[in-house]
Amino acid sequence: MPHRSLDEIEQLTRQALSAYGARPFVATEVARAVRVAEGYGNKICGLYYVESYCLQLQSGRVDGKVEPRVSRPRPGVVHVDAGYGFAQPAFAEGLAPALEAVRELGTATLAVGHAHTCTSLGYFTEQIAKAGYIGIGFTNASPIVAAPGGKSRVIGTNPIAFAVPDGAGGVSMQFDQSTTTVALGKITMAKAVGEKIPLGWALDADGEPTTDPEQALQGSLVSVGGYKGWGFGLMAEILAAGMTGSVLSRDVKPLKSPQGGPHDLGQYYILLDPAVSEAFPARLKNLTSFATVDEGARLPGQSKDMVDEVEVAPSMWTRLLELAEGPKPSV
């Protein structure tokens, strides 16, 4: 499979988004997130989403021109109204005042409301950690998860992300995971290539376990650890929707559908300054040594390396080139 540089990927993604109506700052921020996802091997959150971004810009499902509105209603609270635009530029606008608040107070929250899917939640908490602070993030998504023992969809995959600074401008530990056994994108990708899914990932519409991705998409995904994952998913739902003013997962239409109402999702971040505890650096160092004493053991995120080139399927690259040329005139 051909390899493409991250520079090419970012440039063409930015060009495509601009061609479909995103203003320069928006196109730049979203393209940068696509670049990082591809560079880390996170295919589900990279080029896989670019076509839907463009088609939703074209249909108006996402607003590529809106200016996010930032407010600070309390000293430690920063709120960004994304205005039904992309999450990446909204977060970028809110990050500086949130960092100012956590420097002043030791803890702060950043709520991004009325936003498009953020795709990779860890992309944002990593930025918080690289600025020197602990970042915890929550978001919700379109409904695909039923309560344990049920079959009616209530919440989304509702990821939780956590990132810890290393004290030198980097990240010592981080994870970004859905509160389901597997991310929805892995189900859709299995369907696209005609593969079965492992038993335990999903249920069919009758609430029975299935290995058929099509049946899974008609049914529901399974919370990781049963009731334990369900609880974490509900926590993410309450914070992402309730603390941002965005909608519950039940009211979100399929994320990649070209048509429909705005996603109107929320992302909620908690920022903590580790400097408030003199013991923090030593405890982190000790924990790292204990957790990695066995050969092959590591902390989450320690094996993440950014590559310069990635494999891109010819069909996906052809489509990206087409999108970069802009919408075709209607006949």
String of helices and strands: EHHHEEHEHEEEEEHEEHEHEHEH
- Residue fraction in strands: 15-25%
Number of continuous helical runs = 10
> What is the number of beta strands?
14
Mean pLDDT rating: 95
Q: Main beta sheet: strand number and arrangement?
A: 7 strands, mixed
Radius of gyration: 20 Å
Class derived from helix and strand content: alpha+beta
Describe the structure.
It is a single chain. With about 325 residues, the protein is an alpha+beta fold. It is built from 10 helices and 14 strands.
Task: Fill in the keyword field for this structure.
3-stranded antiparallel sheet; globular
Topology (elements, then pairings):
Elements: E1 3-5, H1 6-19, H2 24-39, H3 50-59, E2 69-74, E3 77-85, H4 87-105, E4 107-115, H5 122-130, E5 134-139, E6 145-146, E7 153-155, E8 160-165, E9 171-177, H6 184-192, E10 202-203, E11 209-210, H7 213-218, E12 220-221, H8 227-242, E13 265-272, H9 280-291, E14 309-311, H10 314-324
Would you summarize the structure shown here?
This protein has 10 helices and 14 strands. The protein is an alpha+beta fold.
